[in-house]
Design brief:
about 50% helix; five-stranded antiparallel beta sheet; about 550 residues; elongated; alpha+beta
């Protein structure tokens, strides 16, 4: 497994190196294209293609500006051996040999498929100089005359890119052209020879890859990749012996270190195991004591490390169990108290249902005498009073439709209007909503009583008007109860609003102020903190108290 891992990592690293080398070569050729391709668009090149075939004089005349242009491009570029332009008639002008350019022209033209695209057309040797030739076919603007721009690069510059790359002590990289011939190899004698057949088959089946090869007489880790731009094939070769050379030494060292570590580990493990087992046995005994109900036990807290942490957590657990037992006991006591209170409430409810019967019978007698004596006012007031008592008794622990609450308020206001002749009552509500809105029983009457007592009677004013209006606001139902009496002092109004918003504890209220708080707390009990009371306005012109209910 170690051998395979090392081989895989070596192949990956070699692939990265060949990819980087391919990228450098591609960048170099793109630089050459950007440098020389603009020559095909120059007027000097166009005139040479159009006129050079007319005679020797024209050839000489139009070659001069072309040669000057070539010279300007080659200045400071020793890697460019020569540049030549050959017209379609085979007339050439070159920076080093017109004859050599004309001789290669037919072969080069066959290799150029698309005009305007540089192609690497092969390797040449000129005066013991190895050249890599790239060429492009181009047309003279506005005419059918065409020619070929030939750029001969010194192969030594490309070879230097590969020579700078080393793989270990004896590994190396080399380059082949698209026909499968050596373009660069550390052994220069192989230049232009065909690469091994096994390598060529691999590159035909896949454009990149890596594996172990035996073509050179020894096992080599070979990686390869093809450049899409130039068609060059980049190979790396690393002897497998070099890759695995230190593996045996590493294996022996690992065995020795592992044996020593195993021996030491066994000794340490036995020692730690013995210490842990004793501590765990102590903890096990303490837990058994807790299981049988003895929760006063405690583990020693002088231990360190993980065992000390376990002991401390055990003690914390025992203390928490004690606290939970005390809490559960207190909750059970409170639960019993709540049960007793519920029973007492039920008894009171039954008592409330029994006691009013005498009152109802008495009111019925008064109502009967009023009818007999033909006094309708007394009959109507007594009838309203009976409904008020019945409503207050029967709906003390549940919600009712708002329409029922309004019916109760009408009974209450009927009695008050009999008392006060100048009292005017205005109720503005959407009749289609009041039957759908659920209200808390007896929530409006305390507000109206507050208006009579504190708005009018306290200031010795004759009750004038009461206005109850309601409207829908998003998902809420807003009810405003307004009077035109004298309102409360600003500090009292602010006190109530802070109380309704939860800024003051209600335990500080005295008996005279409990009415509004009871209404507010009962509404929030049923509908949550988004609902309740709020004093909108309270001054010498009157008071407006707002009730918020869910829609």
């Amino acid at each position: 497994m170690t051998t395979l891992t090392i081989q895989d990592n070596t192949i990956k690293l070699s692939r990265q190196i060949t990819n980087q080398m391919s990228s450098r070569v591609d960048t170099y050729f793109m630089e050459m294209v950007k440098l020389t391709l603009p020559m095909t668009a120059q007027s000097a090149s166009a005139q040479f293609l159009d006129k050079s075939g007319e005679g020797p004089y024209e050839r000489l005349l139009y070659s001069r500006p072309v040669n000057k242009m070539i010279y300007n491009v080659m200045v400071g570029r020793p890697d460019i051996y020569g540049i030549s332009i050959v017209s379609q008639e085979g007339v050439a002008t070159s920076s080093y040999s017109n004859l050599f350019a004309q001789k290669r022209f037919p072969q080069i033209v066959q290799r150029l498929e698309q005009p305007g695209n540089f192609e690497i057309v092969g390797m040449e040797q000129y005066n013991d100089v190895r050249l890599l030739t790239m060429a492009v076919k181009f047309f003279s603007p506005g005419t059918q005359h065409w020619g070929v721009l030939i750029v001969d690069l010194s192969l030594n510059n490309i070879s230097s890119i590969a020579e700078d790359v080393t793989l270990g002590d004896t590994g190396f990289v080399w380059i082949a052209d698209r026909e499968g011939r050596y373009l660069y190899y550390p052994d220069h004698r192989k230049w232009r020879e065909n690469i091994p057949e096994s390598y060529w088959k691999r590159i035909q089946n896949s454009s990149e890859g890596g594996d172990i090869e035996h073509a050179t007489g020894e096992e080599m880790l070979v990686t390869y990749g093809r450049s899409e731009l130039t068609g060059f094939i980049f190979f790396s070769e690393t002897p497998l012996v070099e890759v695995n050379r230190d593996l045996v030494k590493l294996r022996n060292t690992t065995i020795i270190i592992g044996s020593v570590a195993l021996t030491v580990g066994i000794v340490v493990a036995l020692s730690v195991s013995f210490s842990l087992s004793r501590s765990i046995i102590v903890l096990q005994r303490l837990m058994k004591q807790v299981e049988i109900g003895n929760i006063d036990v405690h583990a020693p807290e002088n231990k360190r490390g993980e065992i000390g942490y376990l002991y401390r957590r055990f003690n914390a657990m025992v203390n928490e169990i004690n606290n939970l037992i005390l809490t559960v006991t207190a909750l059970q006591v409170k639960e019993k108290e709540m049960e007793l209170k519920q029973l007492d409430s039920k008894m009171q409810a039954l008592q409330y249902q029994i006691n009013p019967h005498f009152l109802y019978n008495t009111l019925e007698i008064v109502n009967s005498y009023a009818i007999v004596e033909n006094i309708p006012v007394i009959s109507r007031v007594v009838h309203s009073l009976a409904r008020i008592f019945r409503y207050s008794v029967e709906n003390h622990a549940k919600t009712v439709p708002l329409s029922v609450e309004l019916s109760h308020i009408n009974d209450y206001l009927d009695i008050q209007m009999e008392r006060f002749e100048n009292l005017r009552v205005h109720i503005e509500m959407d009749e289609s909503l009041v039957s759908r809105i659920m209200a808390v029983p007896m929530m409006l009457q305390p507000l109206l009583e507050n208006a009579f007592r504190h708005g009018y009677q306290k200031h010795k004013l004759e009750p004038g008007s009461l206005h109850i209006r309601a409207e829908r606001h998003l998902e809420l139902f807003i009810i405003d109860v307004a009077d035109n009496g004298h309102g409360m002092e600003p500090e009292v109004r602010d006190y109530y609003n802070r109380l309704f918003q939860g800024g003051i504890e209600h335990e500080t209220l005295d008996g005279a102020r409990l009415g509004l708080w009871n209404v507010h707390s009962r509404i929030q009990l049923f509908y949550g903190h988004a609902c309740g009371l709020h004093i909108v306005r309270s001054d010498m012109n009157g008071t407006v108290i707002r009730i918020t209910l869910p829609l």
